[in-house]
Write a structure and sequence with these properties.
The protein is of the alpha+beta class. Helix content is 31%, strand content 25%. The chain binds FE2/S2 (inorganic) cluster (2 copies).
């Protein structure tokens, strides 16, 4: 395979190196730069041992290609030697017996520093949620949580908060040619009475369907048809009195997760609004998810309907760190675009009296979706159209 040249900053030093396109960042750091503090456990994005910072945000070095980090600032555990927050964490880990073999510790420390700087008011429950994406096979976690809490308390007592909060994710090169949902506060009127819980990731998106609102609403009332429009989603029992049971399969990098669970649906016909709230669990990774989808239909005046959607979700467990990864928002954008396209196709077929298009799951497999997401990001990074 032909090597490519990558230029990035690692622990404050400019690095230019030849890498094979298939080399992931963790291998590049360990084998080419000899920064062996970055550990490899699962190499599937699950255990968090390889956690580093990329452009100020924690990320898993085993599931990002080194070449995709062109222009990035990467910070490994070695790059925190002189960091005062990390110095406190190291001391607290010792005091609280937060390590045994130490294999998970570099990744755990980087995740802990992210909590200490980003969430200065975090309580024990929040610390546990935030650390859920870093696995330790030795300690039982009590000491790790105690160490992080000790540093949080020390920083609060010293009047320090968010001293070096992570910077927003950066996408280098031209804008990615995919819908990038804005991360916003809830905006859909009438849908925020309960509102998303604190700590949920919230995305707002909208799209236009070329059919009148009454027709689109009739489609939204048929939950089974709407579910069939979402790639990876399926109802596993007939809906009953607003209670839904189903699953949604998602693929991120080498990982696949299938969240099975239950939800409730509340419709406000007069206002053309609906809310779906539910929770589920991926059995394989033991990751738990809860989420809330609020939507409303707005008549455009030209015979078309704008669909506004607000999604709030939270993950707890081994896949929790992906709540903050840019790729999740990309994936959400792709899913919404595919959903809109297939909703349109269903309505077109209905209006023309033709047979409905083939079920979406047969047309759009998760692997293809993932590939298109990754490819779009790579194209953006390398400036190709
Ligand atoms: S080695 Fe990267 S998450 Fe496990
Ligand atoms: S201290 Fe051994 S894996 Fe965490």
């Amino acid at each position: 395979m032909t090597a490519a040249t990558v230029t990035l900053t690692v622990n404050g030093k400019a690095v230019t190196a030849a890498v094979e396109p298939r080399t992931h960042l963790a291998d590049f750091l360990r084998e080419q730069l000899l920064l062996t503090g970055t550990r490899l456990g699962c190499e599937h994005g699950v255990c968090g041992a390889c956690t580093v910072e990329i452009d100020g945000q924690i990320a898993r070095a085993c599931i990002i290609f080194a070449i995709a980090c062109d222009g990035a600032e990467v910070r490994t555990i070695e790059g925190f030697d002189d960091d005062p927050v990390m110095a406190r964490l190291r001391q607290a880990f010792t005091q609280e017996h937060a390590l045994q073999c130490g294999y998970c510790t570099p990744g755990m420390l980087i995740a802990a520093r992210d909590i200490a700087t980003r969430l200065p008011e975090a309580d024990e429950a929040r610390v546990r949620v935030e650390l859920a994406g870093n696995l330790c096979r030795c300690t039982g976690y009590a000491g790790i949580v105690a160490a992080v809490r000790r540093v949080l308390e020390e920083r609060r007592a010293a009047g320090e908060a968010g001293v070096s909060a992570p910077s927003p994710a950066v996408v280098r090169g031209p804008a990615a040619p995919i819908p990038r949902p804005a991360v916003v506060a809830p905006t859909v009127p009438g849908m925020t009475s309960a509102g998303p819980d604190a700590g949920m990731t919230t995305l707002a998106q909208s799209f236009v369907v070329r059919h009148p609102r009454a027709r689109v609403w009739a489609m939204f009332e048929d939950v089974e048809r709407v579910a069939a429009c979402m790639p990876g989603a399926a109802l596993t029992e007939p809906p009953r009195d607003g209670h839904l049971v189903g699953r949604i399969a998602i693929k991120l990098g080498p990982m696949g997760a299938t969240f099975a669970g239950a939800a409730t649906l509340a419709l406000d016909q007069a206002a053309y609004r609906g809310i779906i709230e539910g929770s589920g669990r991926d059995q394989r990774s033991a990751t738990r998810a809860k989420g809330r989808i609020a939507y409303r239909l707005i008549e455009q005046g030209d015979g078309a309907t704008r669909v506004e959607i607000e999604v709030a979700f939270a993950l707890a467990g081994p896949l929790a760190q992906f709540s903050r990864a840019g790729i999740v928002t990309d994936l959400a954008g792709r899913l919404t675009a595919a959903f809109a396209e297939n909703l349109q196709a269903q309505l077109d077929a209905e209006a023309s009296g033709q047979a409905a298009p083939a079920p979406l799951e047969a047309k759009l497999d998760a692997g293809g979706l993932l590939f298109s997401v990754l490819w779009a990001r790579l194209k953006a990074l390398f400036g190709r159209s």
